[in-house]
């Protein structure tokens, strides 16, 4: 089995069982190989986790860049709302988003700084893309640099709903908070 497929299996296991609950023997079994064969590709569980994290970070940044390119002509309001829905879909459809948020908020102790640094890279890219989008909004009630931070705070709160509650809770919270958020963000005409 090739390394990217092993990483996909590992993402699924880390997302479902967390760091402590993930067993290399279970990943190997699902991949149709013996546990010892994993050591041909990865030094140990930490090495596998770090390589998976790098892969996901790259994929999530690529997603963000593509999303903002595709929505370059879309209004700020529609872009932000669509991004929240896109992340909900990504969370439900694949394990990347759940992996990234879960292991950023609850990282294995020895790798905490590494996960924090990688999440900072992701946030830096997201903030830069959001800043460009906010720059195009002429009706802002807030400082330009507060826009990306406010949105990321909203997004983090909504993702807590997906991780610890249900998609329905996410939808309900989005319904409640979206108008409040948007009304506080821009001057109403």
Automatic annotation (TrEMBL):
- Which Gene3D superfamilies does this UniProt record tie to the protein? Homeodomain-like, Tetracycline Repressor, domain 2
Single GO term (MF): DNA binding
Specify the HTH tetR-type domain's residue ranges. Answer: 1-60
DNA-binding as a keyword? Answer: yes
DNA-binding segment(s): 23-42
Q: Which UniProt keywords apply?
A: DNA-binding
Q: Name one Pfam family in it.
A: TetR_N
PROSITE patterns under this entry? HTH_TETR_2 (PS50977)
* Record keyword Amino-acid biosynthesis present: no
Name by which UniProt lists this protein: DNA-binding transcriptional regulator, AcrR family
- Organism expressing this protein natively: Pelosinus propionicus DSM 13327
